[in-house]
TrEMBL record, chains A, B:
Function: An RNase that has 5'-3' exonuclease and possibly endonuclease activity. Involved in maturation of rRNA and in some organisms also mRNA maturation and/or decay.
Record's protein name: Ribonuclease J
Subcellular localization: Cytoplasm
Residues involved in Zn(2+) 2 binding: H390
Enzyme Commission number(s) of this protein: 3.1.-.-
InterPro entries to which the protein is assigned, alphabetical: Metallo-B-lactamas, RibonucZ/Hydroxyglut_hydro, RMMBL, RNase_J, RNase_J_2, RNase_J_b_CASP, RNase_J_bac, RNase_J_C
Sorted UniProt keywords: Calcium, Cytoplasm, Endonuclease, Exonuclease, Hydrolase, Metal-binding, Nuclease, RNA-binding, rRNA processing, Zinc
Pfam families: Lactamase_B (PF00753), RMMBL (PF07521), RNase_J_b_CASP (PF22505), RNase_J_C (PF17770)
Keyword Repeat tagged: no
Residues involved in substrate binding: A230, S231, N232, H364, V365, S366, G367, H368
Organism name: Ornithinibacillus halophilus
SUPFAM superfamilies in alphabetical order: Metallo-hydrolase/oxidoreductase
Amino acid sequence: MGKNLLSVFALGGLNEVGKNMYAIEYGEDIILIDCGNKFPDESLLGIDLIIPDITYLEENKDRVQALLVTHGHEDHIGGIPFLLKKINVPVYATRFTLGIIENKLKEHRILRESDLNEIKASSTINVGEVEISFFKVNHSIPDCLGIVFSTPEGNVVHTGDFKFDLTPATDERPDLHKMAEIGNRGVLLLLSESTNAERAGFTPSEKMVGENLENIFRRAKQKVIVSTFASNISRVQQVVHASEKTNRKLALLGRSMVTVVKIAMDRGYLTVPKGMLIEAREINDYDPDRVTILCTGSQGEALAALSRLSTGNYRDAEILPEDTVILAAGPIPGNEKSVSTIVDNLFQLGAHVIYGSGSSSGMHVSGHGYQEDLKLMLTLMKPKYFIPIHGEYRMLHHHRLLAESVGVEPGNTFILKNGDVVDIEDSQARSTRSIPVGSTYVDGVDVGDMEFVLRDRKKLSEDGMLMIILPVNKTESTLMSDPEVISRGFVDKNFSDLRKGMNRIIVSTLEELREANRNSWNVKKKQVKKLVGQYIKDKTRKEPMIIPILIEI
Amino acid sequence: MGKNLLSVFALGGLNEVGKNMYAIEYGEDIILIDCGNKFPDESLLGIDLIIPDITYLEENKDRVQALLVTHGHEDHIGGIPFLLKKINVPVYATRFTLGIIENKLKEHRILRESDLNEIKASSTINVGEVEISFFKVNHSIPDCLGIVFSTPEGNVVHTGDFKFDLTPATDERPDLHKMAEIGNRGVLLLLSESTNAERAGFTPSEKMVGENLENIFRRAKQKVIVSTFASNISRVQQVVHASEKTNRKLALLGRSMVTVVKIAMDRGYLTVPKGMLIEAREINDYDPDRVTILCTGSQGEALAALSRLSTGNYRDAEILPEDTVILAAGPIPGNEKSVSTIVDNLFQLGAHVIYGSGSSSGMHVSGHGYQEDLKLMLTLMKPKYFIPIHGEYRMLHHHRLLAESVGVEPGNTFILKNGDVVDIEDSQARSTRSIPVGSTYVDGVDVGDMEFVLRDRKKLSEDGMLMIILPVNKTESTLMSDPEVISRGFVDKNFSDLRKGMNRIIVSTLEELREANRNSWNVKKKQVKKLVGQYIKDKTRKEPMIIPILIEI
């Protein structure tokens, strides 16, 4: 057995929450774990999606052997269509995860040519000298896996996203015994997720949400509207149970809710009593106290069902006084404001609204392990080396402290950036090199480097723009008539004075350049842009984008 | 004594957190309470500030008799310069609040002509038949007042911002006895602030922060950097105490920190031992364990001291490994992300960082009373009528429930919108009319209605723009040469194909219009805009702003 270099790195997921993508290389083989997306914040004006930069993989296309998918959340699968369009690598995932991926590939019209393979927690896959096996973890979506890579150099474990919920709502218990065995066989390197590394204690159990839901359902005198992530099938199952116990029909609102619930039912991850599901248009056929509505939009998304219900813009359903609305999902950081607006609107409709951040409302628990969950994983795995993954720097930092508190040697934890490589040879790990990685922006149907476009959009969005059209004599470079100024996103109460001032500056600038015999269009444009910009800034304290357009006549 | 109508309304502060401004009218007299600003969220592209819409006051200029200011926070004073430029009304405020206002008016160059009057909690002011008196409350800035309006119709009480801190860090105890007396004399209508109406319990005391600060200071082996609101003089005082006990010099970083601390020291609200304060440039003259830095930027503001320290961009000071950084202020909703980025950067510099939301880090307590504080105020005042103020709808809603729980009669609470008027006659209150109010945006030096400008900026920021320059024959309306297309903030990998497509559309559009004898410029522009826009949307799924420019030659 020839000895090869074992290398591990991230193409996304470090110093960020989102677009998770990790890679294991042994010798010539590259094995990928997950390929997620991330949603842009407000600074990325008009960008729809951010996906991992796969330049390195494209350059090493023939070496990429497999994509293993730990679970079906967007931040782990959202980049797959874009990856497969470039590199048609075999994909391995569990039955439920595959359902979500198939739906996504169908939308991108590449389902047919994709090589999808269903695996179970008990499967093994061989890629060159690497044997890949799996273990069950639980999280906030069904059918989640951790992964073990058995290499000649030693074993590498990737946890996927996880918590230890010993009383989950569905039969999705974490396989503690298998994890213990893996730890006993010896783990050279552990990659473990860090989302909640800042939070003390154990993650509360999903069971708690079920009990609280049932209490609310029993007290509700009219309709109950529950909003949660469509993929959180345990939570959906508990809403089904509560509806069953209180004799309510269940209507699903929102495209992703309908799609994911269908996948979950078809594939046996969700049990709904016969006759319970009704169409949205049938809601008004039943007494309000016989109806539950389950809908998307718990993050305040403007076009999702809950937002539209809260403003009375949903055709088939409306929220009336004394209805009960439950936000059964905490707001993701950055979404607090839009969620609050919806809560305000719901109160104004006279609804009882049950909401709150994190688990404070009793209607949400995190799918990511808190500090004690993370310590339990570290203790079960007893790794020699440790790479905290899946989180912002402060989360990775806290996760390192947790690892050291349960016995990982100081100096054996690697806090990496995307692209930083950990190489392992003769059981010694070091991180001295990195591969270049960035972010890839998706804007409409375009994928690519958008930096300069974004710079323009930002400038336009702050102070608008002024176009200055200069009709110039072709031979003598003199102005044929007054410049025409067109503004968008810029306004000033003294605009006519400004216009005169600009005209003055433009005329004298062009005159000076002509006299100095500097007749290049570029020089003229640059000079007009600079001086007009300076003038506008002095007069208005604003800096619109100035676009001079010379028209030769 | 002739009987007049008593009316109360808000010009800002309802269904929002910010730009507080309330008005009491008795007969012909209008008395104003506070005039704050609000910072825009990301949807208001390029807007610097939002202030109350004072159209109604301008229309009734001669009736406006006084502006009473409860305390010196921006959301209560930030609009004052803009108000005074329009209506030079006498301003009444306490000594510390006046210090902050004076500084602001100086920046706007209207200090000299302003009519500022210092009041104390024991002062009384008479405006027509209304006698105005005050009572001390505590909050997170010195010298805060509640206000009592004694009118022939009955007494109206406005609480200002408050909590009941019985062990404040400075001598700023709430005057419970005076409040009890006011309640005993009878309160017809109470206006009370609602910021924390959603939170159970009592607000923790500022004392707790002091004890925690001191513990951290004692354990710190290198520099201690504390970031908080400059106006939170109690917190500043506690940092001074902790520095004194651990033999540290104190440097102030950030313009507002230097300004406000100076005001507080000059006016006797802050005691700093002689020789403790050092200049920023002297920081490196002392051993790191002998230095405290107090700085602005606790909300993640990009240009403030903490942000610049966290990226190594502050000339006089730098953060080194083992330094301790304390974020002694919770992030205001909406600022979580920028604060997190700073925390990440500080960890990367090797600092110990103490942070957390709300009071979870032990380094911050709210200045706004929780539910039990609010119930205590309601119980002391025993109002017949109640208007919850200062908060989003959900906060006002919860505050109403609290009022009813301590005895305010259902139906006697008015949840208003800005501009809704409560009229009181013969001790009976009703709300049937409103005055028109909006928001006023401040953009650079411009103040006014910016709706259409904002719409343009939003569109430009999302998909950028395409300018299409059409050189047209003056007489025959035919194209003289190919259209020129200029794009900003818009990109597409097939741009040259798009250009060809657009040319085709433009040429045929102009041709058709010419044949149909429709030669108006407006029709041409409109048609080109529509068809090119449609074409671009089909091809790219993007909707840049299309600006056709016809140049007659």
